[in-house]
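User: Structure tokens for both sequences below?

Assistant:
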Amino acid sequence: MEQLRMEHWNSTLGSGFLLTGILKDSGSPELLCATISALYLMALTSNGLLLLVITKDVRLHVPMYLLLGQLSLMDLLFTSVVTPKALVDFLRSEPTISFGGCALQMFLALSLGGAEDLLLAFMAYDRYVAICHPLNYMVLVSPRVCWLMVATSWVLPSLSALGHTLYTMHYPFCMSRKIRHLLCEIPPLLKLACADTSRYQLMVYVTGVTFLLLPLSVIVTSYTLILFTVLHMPSNEGRQKALVTCSSHLTVVGMFYGAATFMYVLPSSLHSPKQDNISAVFYTIVTPALNPLIYSLRNKEVMGAVRRFLGKYILPTQSTF
């Protein structure tokens, strides 16, 4: 038996996997490919522009926009880990991914997804302090505290992702080489393992609940307290500004957490490959493309900074031709 396990293990190392993704199984693969390409281009352009604007404009060098810049960076990297590979695989007759490539993609996706998960909670805390305790804002969300939140968002999920990646990839895979998913993730890979993974699946479930529901509870609590404070504001203008900002944040939270919860919190018996693929497309491609638009289009400070940036760096260059 041990020899057989080693043969499967060596076979996996040598041959890698087949990522079938969502494009090959769709009814209109060409249309879906064009749509995903457009969303990826939108994500690159909007997140890249927002990141540049926040970096260049000193008016936006405050904790709220520092966290927003980190969100754009995470979205930019997250969608780039998944989308180019999916598009290239669609154009190839045999969409293979090596064992090491699968492990790397899993690690990066888990790290960036977890980082965004924590960052959204920290952004909710930032808005809570700004609206409910404005006089203490520079103390409770000082630059040091802000950078600590950023570091925590990157480091903790990376450590968790490393442990999960190493443990998931140590299994012998002998059921099939075909991963019926958009990317290398834990649930679809465990279906290919020729070993008992029930205990580890429970561990993945507990980790998923912890990483998703704890930050989500912080977000819900923060925005509930914000809502009570906003409703008691004497100024209609201040109330409207706070509601616009918070509604943008909650839209992003709803999109990201809804798809991620479906993938990692709901029992595997409720999943199907098609549903998992749609969920993965949503939080790896759709959400990164829409996040910058949701945050910037309804934010006068960001839109003003974008206009200043374009007027200073883009339009003068074009006028010289």
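Moving on to the next sequence.
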Amino acid sequence: MMRGIFLMIFIHCVSEGSLGAYTTTDATNIHNAVLGPSYNKYVRPSDVTNTSIEFVLFSLNDLDMKSQTMSTSGWMTVKWEDPRLVWSKASNGDIEYIYIKQDKIWRPELIIDNSVGGMDPIGNDEIFFRVKNTGEVRWDPPGLFITHCDIDIAYFPFDYQMCKIEVTSFAFTTEVLTLNKSHDKVNTENFNENGEWILYSSRVEEWVLEENGETFSELEFQIVFQRRPWYYLTNTVYPVILISLLTNLSFLLPTDSGEKISYTLTVLLALVVLLMLVGDSMPAASKHTPIIGIFITVLNLRLYLNTDQSNVPKWLQRFTFSVLLKINCKSKKVKDSKLHQLDTIEDKTELPQTNEGRKSLKRMMRHHSQIPAVQTELDFPFQCKEVSVFLDVFFFWLFKIMNFIVTVVLLIIVAVCDVPPV
């Protein structure tokens, strides 16, 4: 009795499992039914076909600043409804999906509007469609997408770049085909990290294009990348700052040594070569100029080569006493030297005597009036060459301080002011 019950249960389970098992006969019957002579792949499935698209980003291959292009790898997940591709699961071995080559059924013609690698439609005839028993068609065409990207290098190397992938269909207007976003963002679950760029954010926008009085639906996949700055800081920014700081050492070289001009030219040539290497990677006709590419150099030899060494302008004399001597730590020494020279002149000045052995008041006043004249000659006891040396030290410190301030402010600006594109 018990054996009979177990045998009946076993036969029932086997029979139920066989009803839901996949068979090639059932799959062939579905293909013959939905793809019969009545199916025309050139006829759209409905009056208005709503197509949802999702972009799955796999990797960022290259973001070329010079050619202003972005190369990405990924695939599009495209879905739409085709009521002609419907069958009953219960009558066909409980089969839910079948797979059809994309050249066998209708599909929306999609192109990358901003592609620079060709304007061919997306997809390949060897790719399969996955068709559900409800008539839902899923299409996952992979591809290498090379698109135009407007590069803004104003805040290089602390910049953000927003690049787009524009998908549209110029074969079908919005009256018969609409492109809808599946999600508000790009699918980055399988994204592989890039060594130069960080994936900052993404979004998807729906647009309508107008062309010759007709409207076409478009999806715009916007991807924002943030540059990793450390490579450029080490290989570009720091060398440029170091070379620019070496420039102010030219003020410490003796003017008559012949090395001042040659040293400055050597530093200038080194900076030019470095900037040329950096410029090779920048856009040839950029609409934006990098802030970090602005530098200044100063050189002055006019005073040192002046033929009349005693001819120092009055304004420069006042500037020397008020500023230059203090910077060169010579103000107290010069003051003591002037007082000593003045006392020596007064001591050596002999006042004439009258016949009675007394000083004539008139002559004494005349001789005292000659002392300020001698003092005026001692008011500026430096020649042009000496003033030139003082100016070199002054410009050395001025250039050093200004260079430090400008460099710090510049780095703060390029590091803080740029914000991700919205």
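User: Anything stand out in the second?

Assistant: Residues 9-19, 295-309, 345-378 have pLDDT under 50 and may be disordered.
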